[in-house]
């Protein structure tokens, strides 16, 4: 099926659309992740880093980065003919965090992208989704040259609840990102089912 049309003789399928956030620290790969998987040309709001922002933009560990997202990234991926995900990448720097409330409105769940070289940079995103009871998955972006750690060690370092999934991924690879997004949808649906069951018992 081509988006918006169906095969001859079959009734058109009206896809369910779900909103997923992609959050994490500055330079962790959010824009790359959205761009790697989006089936449309992603909307990006990147601007060049300036001397004026140098005192507040911590580029430690990402010295080669010269642009930053100032509003959001937006992409779309069709997982099945009846399931479409809209992806919203959040800005990473603290001075843009005020936008997160607007972006998270109506979200099914979120990916918190992490870099083991700067793990503390994703604490704010983890805390944000925990406080708002938004289901999330942690995706550890495996940068070249970064040390590899067992998933359980990273979960302990982030103080994640046992039911929060953590997966290793490559934000540049479409198939790797698709697995992350499928994991978020499954986790969010499982949590919704648990809540429904708790209400009826």
TrEMBL record:
One of its GO terms (molecular function) is hydrolase activity. InterPro entries: Gliding_Motility_GTPase, Gpn, P-loop_NTPase. CDD domains: Ras_like_GTPase. Keywords: GTP-binding, Hydrolase, Nucleotide-binding. It comes from the Bacteria. Belongs to the GPN-loop GTPase family. This is ATP/GTP-binding protein.
């Amino acid at each position: 099926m081509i988006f918006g049309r169906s095969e001859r003789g079959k009734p058109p399928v009206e896809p369910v659309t779900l909103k997923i956030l992609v959050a994490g620290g500055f330079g962790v790969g959010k824009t790359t992740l959205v761009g790697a998987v989006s089936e449309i040309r992603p909307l990006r709001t990147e601007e060049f880093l300036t001397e004026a922002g140098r005192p507040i933009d911590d580029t430690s560990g990402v010295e080669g980065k010269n642009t930053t997202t100032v509003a959001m990234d937006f992409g779309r991926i069709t997982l099945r003919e009846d399931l479409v995900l809209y992806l919203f990448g959040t800005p990473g720097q603290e001075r843009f965090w005020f936008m997160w409330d607007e972006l998270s409105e109506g979200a099914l769940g979120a990916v918190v992208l992490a870099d083991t070289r700067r793990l503390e940079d994703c604490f704010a995103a983890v805390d944000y989704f925990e406080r708002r009871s938004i289901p999330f998955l942690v995706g550890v972006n495996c940068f070249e040259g970064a040390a590899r750690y067992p998933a359980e060690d990273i979960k302990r370092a982030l103080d994640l609840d046992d039911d929060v999934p953590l997966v290793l991924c490559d934000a540049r690879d479409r198939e790797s990102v698709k697995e992350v997004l499928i994991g978020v949808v499954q986790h969010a649906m499982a949590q919704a089912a648990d809540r429904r069951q708790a209400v009826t018992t």
